[in-house]
Amino acid sequence: MSDIEEIQELQQVLKEDSSNFQARRRLAILLLDSGFSDDALKQFLYLVGIFPNDASLHYNLGIVYEKLKKLDPAEKAYLKAIELSPEETDFYYNLGLVYIDKYEFDKAIVAFNKVIETDLDDANTYFNLGLCYTKKDESETAINYLKKAIALNDYDVFAHFYLGNHYKKLGQTEFAVEQYEKVIKISPDYSWAYFNLGSIAYEQGDFDLAIQNLKKTIELNPRDISAYKIYSKILVKLGDIDAAQGLIENSIRDNQYEGDLFYLLAQIYKLQNNQKGYEKGLKIALRNYKTLSYSPKSVKMELDTITAGEKT
User: Fold this and answer.
1) Are 146 and 179 in contact (CB under 8 A)?
2) How far apart, in whole angstroms, are the C-alpha atoms of residue 82 and residue 95?
3) Rounded to whole angstroms, how far apart are CA atoms 28 and 124?
4) Which residues of 99-131 are buried (b: 16+ CB within 10 A; e: fewer)?
5) Which residues of 145-183 are buried (b: 16+ CB within 10 A; e: fewer)?
6) Which domains are delineated in the chain?
7) Among 93, 133, 173, 219, whose Cα sits 20 to 30 Å from the Cα of 109?
8) pLDDT tens readout for residues 145-155
């Protein structure tokens, strides 16, 4: 019997006997697991009303609220579950995840530490502690927890990636490269690892290696604007202006409203002494100011300088 068929059968059972709480509990779990979160919520709320001291019901209610992005009710449900059954580490773990989503990282750290008090070998908890300290911009502590996560699970792609980011931030590029290469070994389609390798190679002046990684980044993620930016800058530095133009024009096909790309294209046209293209690129960049990382005021001044020169 499929889950859908069982759901239908349980719904029929409850039509005949609404007080069959075993059937209702099973139905609530199936609805939750099958992605029918709104329907699951109704069932769990009903059951919690009947069994207010059942910690597992409050816990599952928290899961439903979390899936529905209702973080405050999810927090309340998990706290109630913990109040009723404080020894259950899963309750603290899920509460910590809610606090991460609420950007309340100090509270998340407290919750995850409760998990570690009971289970010293929970790799996911160490990763989440590393993530919390990453968000708090405390690299040394974050590195410590990410290393612990990796020691327990060397296949944790995200732990390796975040660890690489911290090493890159601290200027320890050799260690950063090592982590990004591990990410790619575990997950060959992880475009951000290729991008970070490309950006490091660019900063070190190894343009061939940078291009190799940036090409792979764009292949995996054609909407990675930062990759196009660095790649085009390299081509310009190498004197291949026409290739830079072609690259940006191709990228615009996938990113038609990215102000940065039009601004870069304008600068390439400027190098080519293409005044009309230069002016047009700046105008379109300004029209897409919401995706423009350059100062719109500066871009407007640049455009005004062109138009003023045309008038004279």
Assistant:
1) no
2) 9
3) 27
4) bbeeebbebbbebbebbbeeeeebbbbbbbbbb
5) bbebbbebbeebbebbbbbbbbbbeeeeeebbbebbebb
6) 120-188 (1.25.40.10), 189-251 (1.25.40.10), 256-312 (no CATH)
7) 173
8) 999 999 999 99
